[in-house]
Give the backbone structure.
Amino acid sequence: MAGWLEFEKPLLELEQRIDELRSFADDQNLDVAKELARLESKAEDLRKQIYGKLTRWQVTQIARHPRRPYTLDYVRMLGIDFTELHGDRRFRDDEAIVAGFGHLNSRKVVIVGHQKGRDTKQNIQRNFGMAHPEGYRKALRVMKLGAKFGRPIITFVDTPGAWPGIGAEERGQAEAIAVNLFEMSHLPVPIVIVVIGEGGSGGALGIGVGDRVLMLEYSIYSVISPEGCASILFRDAARASQAADAMKITAKDLSELGVIDETVPEPPGGAHRDPEAAGRAVGEAIERHLSELEQMGSVELVRKRLAKFMAMGEFKEV
């Protein structure tokens, strides 16, 4: 079951049968093409059936999958010639956020993103993708430097939330995120945001204000984690699946609510099953939106960006 989620177990069993049959046929030099084709067709139908009716909690599990591509994976897959910059010039470097300059094809861009680790050592180094205030200050420093030279900005969002530790609070976590919200709203260059996994709370918003907000098909974006919401509302974190349904945190939900601009389709089974295909889909979407945004002047960009976010949410006076 390594790398497989519980609801995928029927598909896992079928794919194991396919692998066993293929291996046996190779060893015995047998022609089993028809049987393999039948089983592969059955697996494809089962995959569509499972992924065609995912619950919001199941989407959350996929968004958190440990083999899902992270920011630096997309940088590699998009062929970005990336030069990372470090430090916020106030306290230290925060490795939960990567930021720097690069070339996306012929376009000079700024890249900023949350970065998680693949194992315990890396996750400690990256703080599980949960940034301190110096991470958000580093991100803003690099974005403002890029804006000075007219470079469009691409950010990759993937965090459970900003780090809530005492040290982070002492160094102004809320203030750092708030300043980023204000400053990103007014940067005079195109900004494309891509939620590639978890988009958690202010930790996501700290690099999440842009002209276009995209979400991968099996990513999530919410004001709090389902577990956190369940703990507060129900006094029981075990009711996270119920909270996920209530919060409407999937790309489909947020597209219908007008919070995001596009859902980027993922390969069958999620981005971790075919990272290169996911990378191509993300790259195509980024290129398309940047091409559209580059037709606008800086004044129009900022005006539309502010109007976009100010229009979110509805209320009625009674």
